[in-house]
Amino acid sequence: MADRLTQLQDCLDDLATQMYACLRYIHTHHPYSPIPGQPDHNPHATRHPSSIPPASDTVTTSEPTNGTAATSQGPFTQTTTTTTNTVSAHPPSTDPVPTPTEAFQPALKELARDLILKEQQVEYLVSVLPGLRSSERDQHARIAELETQLVAAEEERGRAVEMKKRMVESVGEVLLSVRRVY
Predict the structure, then answer these.
(1) Cβ distance 98 to 32 under 8 Å?
(2) Strand partners, 71
(3) pLDDT tens readout for residues 23-55
């Protein structure tokens, strides 16, 4: 478990990421609405195929209109084919299609609810930070108290280490005496 400051930093990072994701979603999925005084224009509207002029590269090697030509040269017949490559003048749009309003509004509410929950987590973590409601003098007194507790704990640890050494020596002596007997 991380300390409270690390939790707060992680929570703030998550909040910033969520905010960016919400803005990105709104920017890419919002439904279009007309601007007063402007002509209606929807960049995602599909154009009727007849309104797009075809750009074509045609290679014709013969005169017949059915696309093939047969020329007779002795016993061999040679056939030539007409090739037409049509390239669209308007490539397909890579922009996402807007979400319908009836699906967009509930999605916005869910995104807003998630942002509010994350912001409340941040507020909670800030409220439980130590020293938020105490003066500088109280904090110095608390630090001094913690230092004395640390010194006492260190002394107790030192005594425990010495006691462990004595016990290891006594167990070693017992093992040696048992080994001599057998």
Answers:
(1) yes
(2) 78
(3) 999 988 888 777 788 776 655 555 444 444 444
In the block, tokens 């130590």 appear at 130
**Beta strand segments in 3-154, E:** 55-59, 68-73, 76-81, 83-87
Share of the chain above pLDDT 90, in %: 38
Asked if residues 66 and 79 have their Cβ atoms less than 8 Å apart, the reply is no
CA distance 64 to 78: 14
25 and 103 in a single domain? The answer is yes
Dist. CA 90–CA 94, nearest whole Å:
12
The structure tokens listed for 136 are 């500088």
User: Which domain, by its residues, includes 140?
Assistant: 135-182
Q: Are residues 165 and 179 in the same domain?
A: yes
